[in-house]
Each structure stands twice: as structure tokens, then as C-alpha cells.
Input
Amino acid sequence: MKISNILKQVNKSISFEFFPPKNSQAENQLFNTIRELESLNPTFVSVTYGAGGSTRDRTRNIVKKIHEKTNLTVMAHLTCIGHTKEEILEILTDYKKIGIENILALRGDIPADIKDFEIPKDSCKFAVELIQLIKENFGNHFCIATAAYPEGHPESPNLERDIFFFKKKVEAGAEFAITQMFFDNRFFYDFLEKVSKEGIDIPIIPGIMPITNFKQIRKFALMCGATIPEELVKRLEAVENKPEEVKKVGIEYATKQCIDLLEHGVKGLHFYTLNKSDATIQIYENIKHLL
Ligand SMILES: Cc1cc2nc3c(=O)[nH]c(=O)nc-3n(C[C@H](O)[C@H](O)[C@H](O)COP(=O)(O)OP(=O)(O)OC[C@H]3O[C@@H](n4cnc5c(N)ncnc54)[C@H](O)[C@@H]3O)c2cc1C
Output
């Protein structure tokens, strides 16, 4: 089913993001996580796509397996920067054939670990071109989602410029958006106000990253330009060498963040699970009375 239609029916949406596992052992672990999270009755789950197309087959195989072996609605992430348009059409034709109806259309980034990575001449250079390509070739078969950046995309000179291009993606056919992680809800509320002034009215679902490993999330946050508030940094630094304490702080913080978002009337919450269920389940238990 198309996620845009489900979003119209549900009061609050809960969704989970996974990445494609590297080997069969990791795949078994992921399916345990999926089974645990399935019991929370999420609106949808999504599977990421490796930078530059590096997980093309693995993403496709996990998406297919979730679609066939669970009752979950699954959305495939797809990045365009490393593919020719012909390859993109092949991937989408295959998704259509196996019954997938939801695509998160992204530009992606040049993979940092591949030396001399070449962007194919005939590729979509920005996500908006990918959305246009999908619409031109598949009409309304796919529900298309897009990425949004409450603090602005790191390459963008300012938030206004980024919102200008965000609007282009919506005009091209994106039906809902998921945000980059953020840790200060004020960025999200300001962003909502600004996009609303631009006449953008698609659902924008905040992406929530529970911090369970401070070193790793600090690196991610730096890369994607997400600010970690000083007060949270201090609390995490104080327990940096005690993984269980870090997790406790991370869960408590994400719980407060989610409660505040729900009280401000958000349509849903999208959790970056990093293929683990425990932190997300604990946060869910803390907020379920508001869902
Ligand atoms: C929810 C979410 C999920 C993600 N999943 C993945 C994933 O699975 N795999 C992965 O590799 N990455 C993923 N990313 C990261 C994403 O690929 C990067 O942030 C990437 O740098 C931008 O992708 P985009 O689709 O937002 O690009 P775009 O919307 O194309 O924007 C990229 C930059 O270009 C600017 N821009 C847009 N259009 C134009 C134009 N016409 N002219 C000039 N400038 C323009 C924008 O302002 C922005 O600065 C995800 C991000 C989010 C928020």
C-alpha cells in the first residue's frame, strides 16, 4: 500500500529505518529486530541504499524479503548520483514487478571510500531529477518520499536556499518527507514554519536518532550538519566510557524529544534504528500513551 494513503488514515505514524546487512549472520539479526519491531505495528519501515549504489542488490533483496515475509509496508531508499538513468529505470522496473510501491528518492553522496568515483554522465544530478524521472516513467505507481533538512543541507549556503530546492522536490511529486536527524526540536519547528510560508503542505516526519553510541553518532551528526546541544554533549561525555549509561541518557533524551514533538502535533516519528530494536522499543514504551 502507498504510504501517502496510510498517512491519511492513521492518527500518528511510527516508522523504522534499517540498513542492508553485510552477511547472512547480520541478516538473521536484522530479521530478529524486524520481528520485534513488527509487534509495535509500524506504519512502514524503510531500507537504506549504500552511497553511490554500493548496496544495490542487498537493499533490493532485503526490501523484497520484508515485503514477502512480513506484513510490513516497506519503502526502498534509492540514490541517483552513482547510476545512469537507464540503471535507475531497471531498478524501479524490478521494484514495480515485485510489488514495491514506496520509494524514498534521494540524490545521495559521492562515496568517501571509493577513490576516483565517477558520476555517470547520464545520471540525475539532484533528487528532484530522480523524482521527475520516476513520475515520467511510472506515473502514479510509486508513492515518492523525499529528504528534508531542518538545519539545512550541509552543502546549502543557507536554509532558505535549501527550502527553495525542497519545494522543487514537492512540486515534482514528493508526497511526504522524512527529516535528517536533529536533537533540538526548535530547528524542526522553525523549519515547519518556514516551509509552510512557502505553501508546502506535505506531511514532514521527523527523523529520530536515539543515541546509544556517542562516538558514532557524534561522527554522523558532524557529517550531516546536525547540532548536538551543549548540555546533551556534557551529559554524554560524563558517561562516555560506560555504554549502558550512554544508552540510558540517549533513551531519556529521545523520549523527551518525541513527547515534545507529539505534543506539538507531529504526524509521526521515524526512528533510525541502526538495525537494533531495544532503544526504539524502550522509547516507544515511554511514549505509547501519546500515540
Ligand atoms: C531521511 C533520509 C534518508 C536518507 N537515506 C539515505 C540512503 O539510504 N543512502 C544514502 O546514500 N544517503 C541517504 N541520505 C543522505 C542523502 O543522500 C544526503 O543528505 C545527500 O547529500 C542529499 O540527498 P538529497 O536527496 O537530500 O539531495 P537533494 O535534494 O538533491 O539536495 C542536495 C543538495 O543540493 C541542493 N540542490 C538541490 N537541487 C538543486 C539544484 N537544482 N541546483 C542546485 N542545488 C540544488 C540542495 O539544497 C542540497 O544542498 C538520507 C537522508 C535523509 C534525510
Summary: The mean pLDDT is 97. The chain has one domain: 3-210+268-278. The CA atoms of residues 131 and 172 lie 6 Å apart.
